[in-house]
């Protein structure tokens, strides 16, 4: 995607078509004419909702500010199921500390979290085209600071404060094109020499997709966002872009299986080797850093499917002291759970312009471009994200407590429970615990199948995060090609269940799960 940094104050571009290049939305109240900044009271977050304590406010899962975020979001709906994958490349800074209340309702909870440094400057990156009569920035009021909560940002960011597509329609239009033309050869030459802006070709960008990217950037507090066709596309391109040939990475035992397959079978073809450690093994990480020139530490937090939690601040400081990049796949704990993408398979990377540009360059070669119609669905879905997430997280936490107390359940994996091995870490760096609960029933493979088949509400399907609840038996859904002994090496037992809670009524889901457990009593 051809991009440009839109200047301040707004100025006129002599260019073609009904698009206008504009300033990136700034939610800190920066006066017009100044370079946008992340306000000192704004904390870069990946957010989450849960029913903790006194209600269902927008409680936020925080990644520390100045993490250079490489966000990979994977979403698919089949029988209304959505999955989400996030990859976060973290780069710790040493500036002054400050806090960011990501929503007014969660201010008290967020004030309790540890403060970390915040970057002052945000690079404004935008693919844009404009015509002679349009001034850049006309549709954007940089003095606007009324969007104080993530819920409001999901509705308006990238749109209400101005967008590249000039239209008075409330809904962002879908621009279906694979190529963009130039009026004269001189305009093409100007584009090649960076005096004129254009997407040029569909693989390099799309006005509708840019709106979705802007919305995600606003929520992330990121300089730039790149959307791709799938979460695995985003994570694999990121790994290939950031890890040099012959490099070494460190990863963890519990993780999404396709990520593990890529690390174990594809990266070695590029001479890239890996050390595998337990998610909580900080000593093992330090040993690997001392023995190898490690380019990247790649893990999930919480992990899939056992929801293990990594002490992000600790591992980031340790890795960056050795010059190692930290990448977190945040599938189970992302910005507002990040599950708005109904009917969409997509992935995105958000972060510093430097890193995103490096990844974007490889993406332009490899492809994996998101269809603008899918981008539109992402935009639409994000507008009700905060409402749906509240219900999902409330139900997950309450059901985890119910399941842990049930005699037919052997073990529950949920970071919101005191019994979880990283519960204290989760409390410290999260203010919500996600909408997915994994648990083991008391029985063998067939007993577990009987329980799953007795459920009436959830769909049996892969992925998670939809309005409808989803259930799967990992031994069958994800690991059926392996023998029982091979599955057990990864901790995948025949009685393990992963349940993604939707937005159905809690009492209905509770009754359904309890009746299904009665069938195996």
From TrEMBL:
Q: Output the Pfam families linked to this UniProt entry.
A: Cys_Met_Meta_PP (PF01053)
Q: Specify whether Lyase is a keyword of the entry.
A: no
Give a Gene Ontology cellular component term annotated to this protein.
chloroplast
Q: Decide whether keyword RNA-binding is in the record.
A: no
A GO term for molecular function: cystathionine gamma-synthase activity
Q: Which cofactor does it need?
A: pyridoxal 5'-phosphate
Q: Which CDD domains does this UniProt record tie to the protein?
A: CGS_like
Q: Could you give a single Gene Ontology term from the biological process aspect?
A: methionine biosynthetic process
Q: Which keywords accompany this UniProt record?
A: Pyridoxal phosphate
- Protein family: Belongs to the trans-sulfuration enzymes family.
Q: Which PANTHER family has this protein been placed in?
A: CYSTATHIONINE GAMMA-SYNTHASE (PTHR43379), CYSTATHIONINE GAMMA-SYNTHASE 1, CHLOROPLASTIC-RELATED (PTHR43379:SF1)
The protein in question is named Cystathionine gamma synthase
């Amino acid at each position: 995607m051809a991009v440009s940094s839109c200047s301040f104050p707004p100025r006129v571009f002599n260019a073609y078509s009904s698009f206008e290049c504009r300033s990136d939305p700034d939610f800190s109240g920066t006066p017009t004419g100044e370079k946008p900044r992340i306000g000192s009271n704004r904390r870069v977050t990946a957010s989450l909702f849960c029913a903790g304590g006194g209600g269902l406010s927008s409680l936020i899962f925080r990644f520390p500010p100045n993490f250079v975020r490489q966000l990979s979001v994977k979403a698919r709906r089949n029988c209304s199921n959505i999955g989400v994958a996030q990859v976060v490349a973290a780069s710790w800074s040493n500036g002054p500390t400050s806090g960011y209340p990501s929503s007014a309702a969660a201010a008290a909870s967020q004030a309790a979290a540890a403060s970390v440094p915040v970057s002052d400057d945000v690079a404004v990156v935008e693919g844009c085209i404009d015509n002679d009569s349009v001034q850049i920035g006309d549709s954007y009021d940089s003095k606007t600071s009324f969007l104080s909560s993530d819920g409001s940002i999901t509705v308006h960011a990238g749109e209400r404060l101005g967008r590249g597509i000039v239209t008075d329609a409330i809904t962002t239009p879908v621009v279906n094109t694979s190529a963009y033309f130039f009026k004269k050869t001189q305009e093409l030459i100007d584009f090649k020499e960076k005096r004129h802006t254009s997407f040029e070709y569909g693989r390099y960008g799309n006005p509708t997709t840019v709106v979705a990217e802007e919305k995600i950037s606003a929520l992330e507090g990121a300089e730039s966002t790149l959307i791709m066709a799938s979460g695995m596309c985003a994570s694999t391109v990121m790994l290939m872009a950031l890890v040099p040939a012959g490099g070494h990475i460190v990863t963890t035992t519990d993780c999404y299986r396709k990520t593990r397959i890529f690390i174990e079978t594809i990266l070695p073809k590029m001479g890239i080797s890996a050390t595998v450690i337990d998610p909580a093994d900080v000593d093992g990480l330090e040993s690997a850093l001392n023995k190898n020139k490690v380019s990247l530490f790649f893990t999930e937090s919480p992990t899939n499917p056992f929801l293990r939690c990594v002490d992000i601040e600790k591992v980031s400081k340790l890795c960056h002291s050795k010059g190692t990049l930290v990448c977190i796949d945040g599938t189970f704990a992302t910005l507002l759970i990040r599950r708005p993408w109904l009917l969409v398979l997509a992935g995105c990377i958000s972060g510093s312009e430097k890193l995103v540009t490096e990844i974007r360059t490889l993406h332009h070669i490899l492809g994996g471009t998101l269809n603008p119609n899918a981008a539109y669905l992402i935009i639409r879905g994000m507008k009700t994200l905060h409402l749906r997430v509240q219900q999902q997280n409330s139900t997950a936490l309450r059901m985890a407590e119910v399941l842990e107390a049930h005699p037919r359940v052997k073990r529950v994996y949920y970071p919101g429970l005191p019994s979880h091995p990283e519960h204290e870490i989760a409390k410290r760096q999260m203010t919500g615990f996600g909408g997915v609960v994994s648990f083991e029933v008391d029985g063998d493979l067939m007993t577990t199948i009987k329980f799953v088949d007795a459920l009436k509400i959830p769909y049996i399907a892969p992925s998670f995060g939809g309005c409808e609840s989803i259930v799967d038996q990992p031994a069958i859904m994800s690991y059926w090609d392996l023998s029982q002994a091979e599955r057990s090496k990864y901790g995948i037992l025949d009685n393990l269940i992963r349940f993604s809670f939707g937005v159905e009524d809690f009492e209905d889901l509770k009754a359904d799960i309890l009746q299904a457990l009665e069938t195996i009593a």
